Every structure is written in C-alpha cells, then in structure tokens.
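Re-running SCO family protein to confirm reproducibility after the cluster update. Everything else is unchanged from the original entry.
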Amino acid sequence: MRRLAFLSASVAIVGLMGGVWYATMGAKGGDQFAQCRSTAIAGGSGQIGGPLTLVNKDGETVTDADFITEPTLLYFGYTFCPDVCPLDTVRNADAVDVLADRGYSVTPVFVTIDPNRDTPQAVGDFAANIHEKMIGLTGSEEQIKAASQTYRTYYKRQPGEDDYYLVDHSTFTYLVLPDHGFVEYFRREVSPDEMATKVACFVDAS
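Result of re-run:
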C-alpha cells in the first residue's frame, strides 16, 4: 500500500512538473495568444494581414504604420451600406468604449470597399459620426483591392443605375496589434462586451 501511495504521489508530482514546464517553457515556442483564440485560420494567422497603403480623410496617403499605432479593430465596408455596415461599426465603437472603461485604448478603423463613391470626406464624415476615435480610409481602386486581398476579404459591386447600387462584402472585424499584426477576427454576432473581453485578453498577452 505504501509503495502504491508513493507511486501515485510520484506520478502526480511528475504530472504537475510537466504542466509547469508546458506553461513556462512549452508556451514560449508556441502561440502566445492560444488562451485567447476562439477562431482558427487555415495555415495560421500569418495568412491574413500585412502592409497597407490607403488615403485618409484629409486626402493624404498613409500606411498601416500611420493608423495602426495601438490595438485596432479593422472593418471593411462602405458608407452607402443600408444596414450591415452601420450596425457592425457601431458595435465596434461600443466595444471600444467598453474597453476604455476597463482601461484599454483601442482604435476602430473603417476601410471602404467602394472607392468610387467613398471620397476622403465621405469616409471621414462616416467615421466621425460613428465614434470620435474612428479612422475612415479610402484609396484608389487598386489600393482598395490590395488592402482587401491583404486581409482576405470579399466584395463585389451589384448592378445598379447611376450611384444607386449595393456592394456585397464580407463582414468580419479584424483585431490588429502594432507589434504582432493580425491576431483575431470577430463575426457579426459577437456582442460589444464579448469583443471587449477577447480584445483585452490579446492585449494582456502581447
């Protein structure tokens, strides 16, 4: 009985040491954000994100280094969007406010996928009406296409007369950290509180 108890205790100690090693050493060679992730990307998160060159509300050409200066919630949409984009961007703005209440500073960014209608002033006004911190960005058709491809988004203009047309597009919001790039995406059904909690996890782990 004593031998059995000794063996059981030994196994428990070895298991505990193994857990401590994994937590302190094993995690170093793995994903530092593993405890925060709720989504999976085929090939890893490195498949999404990268350098961006766009145009801000003042008509100035800017890069991601200019506007991703702190944790950022990045969304691709368009100002003429009748329902989805306003709801999604307001949700993102609400999450930013929840995070601010918890002591985290996060920037919401809106990138148009409709540069034909969304001038610098249009995206600037749209962003300002949603949240005082929101940055609105546009660009040439080539710049928007490149940005969309960088974040693996989808958009397609639908037939319509004159300027009255809709644009089909994906609706993910991307969390980007200055020193790490893209780390997570959020679906439309995620609430502001849920998004804030998840963002805080990534920020704390960075």
